[in-house]
Amino acid sequence: MPRLPIIAGNWKMNTTPRQAVALVEEMLVELDKVQGVEKVLCPPFVSLGAIERLIQGTSVKLGAQNVYFEEKGAYTGEVSPPMLAELCQYVILGHSERRQHFGETDEFINRKVRAALAFGLSPILCVGETLAENEAGRTVEVVTGQVRGCLAGIASPQGLVIAYEPVWAIGTGRAATGQEANATMAVIRDTVAELYGQAFAQGLRIQYGGSVTSTNIAEFIEQPHIDGALVGGASLRAAEFIDIVRQTATLKGR
Length: 254
Hints:
single chain, alpha/beta, TIM Barrel, eight-stranded parallel beta barrel, 8 strands, globular
């Protein structure tokens, strides 16, 4: 069976709750019309409740940008999996910004992946190499190490999505080429096959992330191992995000 493409918009630390609602209202009708693509919006925590109410009855899904691995307790400022499970279907984990600014390791992310899965959330697990690692020819080593580390000891990560995001391409305007990204994602799929078998790996959806726009989305979506995109800045522009989703639907031809 062909894999259902998935386009997720990571809004990062942008939009107030009112701005978030206005942005969704601007794009919701057109997004809902597009068939054959799973559409996920990932706003800041403070806007999840309002957007969850807004998208009810539509085909648009909701995702969070992070989660803590404990179910509850004295963890001031953190958000737990059961809190998100009432609102979201997806959660972004392991983003390079979490690794860079908050010191998250593969082991720490692994605990988050386990917790998300335990409460029925589908992790969008981010992996990717830095510019120095890329230029040193260590892309495969780094990316496969992250995949193995973040999934260590997890028997069956049902619902998992992996996002390959070369760190040097995030927010820089410098995207990888479609062929470069596809080659790395083929290695990711092979690594997952070693962990969980060919059937699971062939059903796994892998997104590209890193300076994705409506101008370059086709270059990625046309590649056989690329099943969608984790979109950053372009997901904050309604018309452009809608265009990305539409192009994906057309090119994947479901």
